[in-house]
Amino acid sequence: MTATTAIDVTGARTTEAADVITGARERIDALDDRIIGLIQERMAVSAVIQEARINSGGRRVNLSREMEVLTHYSEALGKPGTSLAMTLLELCRGRI
Q: Of the residues 35, 42, 86, 89, which has the fewest C-beta atoms closer than 10 A?
């Protein structure tokens, strides 16, 4: 990527800043790939739990456990953590 192109793509005003931004974006992209992999792993583990619960005559969803998860994310990340936890729960068990 040329210096001008890097500046244009990053919105930076200097080549040095564009280099920092480009490197940081690469790290974010790698982190996002890891996060997606962890979410997919969480979904698979959740499916195992749901199957075991249903096969034992229980319900697919354990609301008290979901409240624990919501509280954990909220305490760690604040209000956006609650939204994130809700999205994770929906991905892992579907809408209820």
A: 35
Tally the C-alpha atoms within 13 A of residue 4's C-alpha that lie toward its C-beta: 0
Residue of 50, 78, 82 whose CA lies nearest to 69: 82
Q: What angle do CA 20, 38, 43 make, to 5 degrees?
A: 145
Distance of CA 41 to the CA centre of its chain: 12
DSSP string for residues in 11-50: --SSHHHHHHHHHHHHHHHHHHHHHHHHHHHHHHHHHHHH
Q: What are phi and psi of 48, to 5 degrees?
A: -65, -45
Nearest-angstrom CA–CA distance, 33 and 24: 14
pTM (whole model) above 0.90: no
Distance CA 81, CA 48 (A): 25
How far from the centroid of its chain's Cα atoms is residue 71's Cα? 16
